[in-house]
Amino acid sequence: MSNGPFEIDVDTLGNLRPISKVVLSLGSNLGDSAAILQEAVDFLAETPDLMIVDVSPVYESSLVGEGPEQGDFLNMVVVAESTLEPLTILDRCLAIEENFGRSREVRNGPRTLDIDIIMVGKRISEGDIELPHPRAHERAFVLVPWHDVDPNGEIAGHGPIAELLDDIDASVLTPRRDISIQANTGF
Ligand SMILES: Nc1ncnc2c1ncn2[C@@H]1O[C@H](COP(=O)(O)OP(=O)(O)OP(=O)(O)O)[C@@H](O)[C@H]1O
Ligand SMILES: Nc1nc2c(c(=O)[nH]1)N=C(CO)CN2
Q1: Beta bridge partners of 8
Q2: Does the keyword ATP-binding apply (predicted)?
């Protein structure tokens, strides 16, 4: 899959809307994380004008970066196609996070659900959203699952994820083959 926009959609008013590749990183380390990830993917699949192309395997890892003592994360990546604007996708992701009672009281604290927007086509930072996600290129919990389902993926400004993987320690991740998240698109 290219990084798009690579196709055009025509809406009911006849407007042309570019279809962009969207990559999302989902993480959870509070509550029943496997069930939360499945429900989050279900909510994403119900989003109008966003079509899930693939969901990755799930990996477990300890907190990357600064933060209080907390449980290990489950992480996965969703690859989709969408005509939505990045800020509309962000609003939808924040609403899905809130549905699981996501709290931001403790900075970098444990979270029921975190959805990071890794990229929307070749779009770059605009307003309240940083694109591509500024830390995605150095995060094993993003690059490894993404590469599993999209080996030719690229991050604008950083290059092919297959090459970025050479610079990270993937051994920090434990594959959770006992957990399988499905994209139930209803078709
Ligand atoms: N690409 C992006 N994906 C998600 N949120 C973004 C993005 N760019 C900017 N934001 C803003 O940053 C906020 C995300 O803050 P949050 O507390 O979830 O960060 P985090 O996921 O804990 O840390 P990190 O940004 O290192 O992944 C969102 O509310 C949103 O307004
Ligand atoms: N292992 C792991 N570490 C993290 C994660 C995460 O999802 N998994 N998310 C972060 C902020 O988004 C910071 N650190």
Answers
A1: 18
A2: yes
